[in-house]
Specification:
mainly alpha
């Protein structure tokens, strides 16, 4: 069921607030929760790096618009994850998946569009949905689990948008 932009913004703000406030200062996270923070950080950094490339390498307007939306949304999520990670003593900034970003760097136009949609938009969000779902169901930190659960609808919506973009581009 499609959600209105206003509903998605409300969901996003709720998720962002949960990430920003889900902490016990100085408390070390379990290995499962640390892995989630690392994997979510890398997924976000990859999304940001690839989407920034899309602004200059993509041929299709819809691909560039999708990328711009991902930059805005994933920047907010990254900031909140960063705050949470730092409050738990995790200070190393996440880095993008160099294999994914590197595979896109030398592509242009329709070739870039196809690879970005497949590797970042669809596959990246499919993995992110699973990552956030797993944390929301079986993470050890109660507040982090709740934050992941609240972010999940936004990430799921990104995945739905990516699938629709892929369908639209395959049909054209």
């Amino acid at each position: 069921m499609p959600r209105s932009p206003k509903t998605l913004i409300a969901l996003w703000l709720t998720a962002a607030g949960a990430f920003a406030h889900a902490q016990t200062p100085g408390e070390k996270l379990s290995p499962v929760d640390q892995q989630f923070i690392q994997d979510a950080g890398q997924a976000g950094a990859t999304e940001l790096a690839a989407s920034k490339l899309a602004l200059t390498h993509a041929a299709d307007r819809q691909v560039r618009e999708f990328a711009q939306r991902m930059i805005v949304d994933h920047t907010k999520l990254a900031r909140n994850l960063d705050v949470l990670a730092k409050r738990h003593g995790m200070t190393a900034p996440p880095s993008a998946d160099t294999a994914v970003v590197g595979s896109l760097q030398n592509l242009q136009g329709a070739e870039f569009d196809k690879a970005y949609i497949e590797k970042v938009a669809v596959d990246g969000h499919r993995k992110a949905v699973e990552l956030f779902r797993k944390e929301s169901e079986s993470g050890n930190d109660t507040a982090l689990k709740a934050a992941a659960a609240k972010a999940l609808p936004v990430i799921s919506h990104h995945y739905e948008m990516a699938q629709q973009l892929a369908k639209t581009k395959a049909a054209s």
